[in-house]
């Protein structure tokens, strides 16, 4: 199984920046896609950005041009650089990983516990 641990959330003023990190650990054959999702109070969870192992990215329209997702495959870590933050970016940000299990090579997925990002003056 894979465990995901996020870090980097916090309180930032509008226009500011934050960088989130998510590291995967545990027993697995390979991490495939990694990504970030967010959920604001009263809203459904929504995609922020995803990144395949090969480097293809997908961003929500609301984050394009402001957020950048990257990863270090050797460290099984994904990052989210968030610039020009807006109050509407306030949410709990959760890391997601799609991976292949050891031995059986079955596709599975894992979620992090989430980290709070608050954008407010």
Largest sheet: 7 strands, mixed
Which strand-content bin applies to the residues? over 45%
Order of helices and strands: EEEEEEEEEEE
Distance between the termini: 40 Å
Which residue ranges are poorly predicted, with pLDDT under 50 across at least 5 consecutive positions? none
Number of helices: 0
Which bin fits the share of residues in helices? under 10%
Query: What overall geometry do the principal axes of the alpha carbons give?
Result: elongated
* Average pLDDT score: 95
Give the C-alpha Rg. 14 Å
Number of strands: 11
Oligomer: single chain
Summing up helix and strand content along with how strands pair, one would put the structural category as mainly beta
3D architecture notes:
Helices cover 0% and strands 57% of the residues. The protein contains no helices and 11 strands. It has strands at residues 2-7, 10-12, 18-26, 30-39, 46-51, 57-59, 67-72, 77-82, 91-100, 107-111, 115-119. Strands 2, 4, 5, 6, 9, 10 and 11 form a 7-stranded mixed beta sheet that branches. A hairpin with a 6-residue loop joins strand 4 (30-39) and strand 5. It is elongated. It starts with a strand and ends with a strand.
């Amino acid at each position: 199984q894979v465990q995901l641990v996020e870090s980097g959330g916090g309180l930032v003023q509008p226009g500011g920046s934050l960088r989130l990190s998510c590291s995967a650990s545990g027993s697995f054959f390979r991490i495939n896609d990694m990504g970030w999702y967010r959920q604001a109070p009263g809203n459904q969870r929504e995609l922020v950005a995803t990144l395949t192992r090969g480097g293809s990215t997908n961003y929500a329209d609301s984050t394009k041009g402001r957020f950048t997702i990257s990863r270090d495959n050797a460290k099984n870590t994904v990052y989210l650089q968030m610039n020009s933050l807006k109050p509407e970016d306030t949410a709990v940000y959760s890391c997601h990983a799609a991976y292949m299990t050891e031995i059986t090579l079955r596709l599975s997925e894992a979620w992090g516990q989430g980290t709070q990002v608050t954008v407010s003056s």
